[in-house]
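Fill in residues.
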């Protein structure tokens, strides 16, 4: 996912594929969306759990693809922090929103673009990598375009997304709310979410983030991913027996 920008709008969320949720560069993004933490203990527990999952995921990614300093990777919607988790430094290009120029300053290479229409030739990278982005791109057709582009531009791909059937909604940190009918969510979410209490955002940022969640986020499950990425291997990340996140990979 892309780092949070105070100046972003919902159109940029759709085209730049962003959200400040728990996975990709979660610690950096959480710091950027916080005004003052009102639940400091919960906040640090959230960051610790997020970092643990990211480290474990990145170690598996590096192991399965035998990542080296020569591996070329396009990270769609990512941030430099992710790649600091690896002992080796592959040749990573970040694709992100134009308004994240400041956040991308630490990246060796980055381009502004839309994950649904990547500005690269077929097979331009060894791997297209994406972490908690595809659920943010909008409707089902936008997700199909995103998947097609990942498969087109990468000779291999690794795409992760939160599991729709995990009982805690991972953007709002709130149990069960994502299983409610959308009309009910529109009444409940503006009034209550654990995210609001753990991260004490300003009113305008709270409104922006919740509007993005309600308007743009479309969570996926294993069956959805099987349709979007035919023939991909499915990896399940579990927490207390529940599948927390799903990864589709064309790797070995």
């Amino acid at each position: 996912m892309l780092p949070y920008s105070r100046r972003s709008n919902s159109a940029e969320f759709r085209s730049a594929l962003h959200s400040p949720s728990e996975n990709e560069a979660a610690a950096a993004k959480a710091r950027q969306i916080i005004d003052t933490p009102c639940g400091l203990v919960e906040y640090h527990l959230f960051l610790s759990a997020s970092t643990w999952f990211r480290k474990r995921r990145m170690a598996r990614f590096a192991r399965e693809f035998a990542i080296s300093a020569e591996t070329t990777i396009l990270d769609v919607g990512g941030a430099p922090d992710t790649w600091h988790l690896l002992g080796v430094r592959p040749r990573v290009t970040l694709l992100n929103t134009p308004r994240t120029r400041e956040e991308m300053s630490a990246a060796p290479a980055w381009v502004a673009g839309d994950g649904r229409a990547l500005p690269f030739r077929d097979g331009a990278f060894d791997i297209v990598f994406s972490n908690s982005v595809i659920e943010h791109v909008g409707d089902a057709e936008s997700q199909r375009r995103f998947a097609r582009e990942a498969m087109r531009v990468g000779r291999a791909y690794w795409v992760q997304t939160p599991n729709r059937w995990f009982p805690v909604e991972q953007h709002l940190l709130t149990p069960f709310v994502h299983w409610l009918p959308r009309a009910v969510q529109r009444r409940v979410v503006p009034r209550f979410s654990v995210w609001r209490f753990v991260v004490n955002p300003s009113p305008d940022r709270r409104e922006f983030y919740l509007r993005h969640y309600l308007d743009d986020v479309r969570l996926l499950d294993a069956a959805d991913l099987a349709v979007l990425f035919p023939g991909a291997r499915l990896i399940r990340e579990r927490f207390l027996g529940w599948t927390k996140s799903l990864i589709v990979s064309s790797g070995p």
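The domain at 10-249 is CATH 3.40.50.150 (Rossmann fold).
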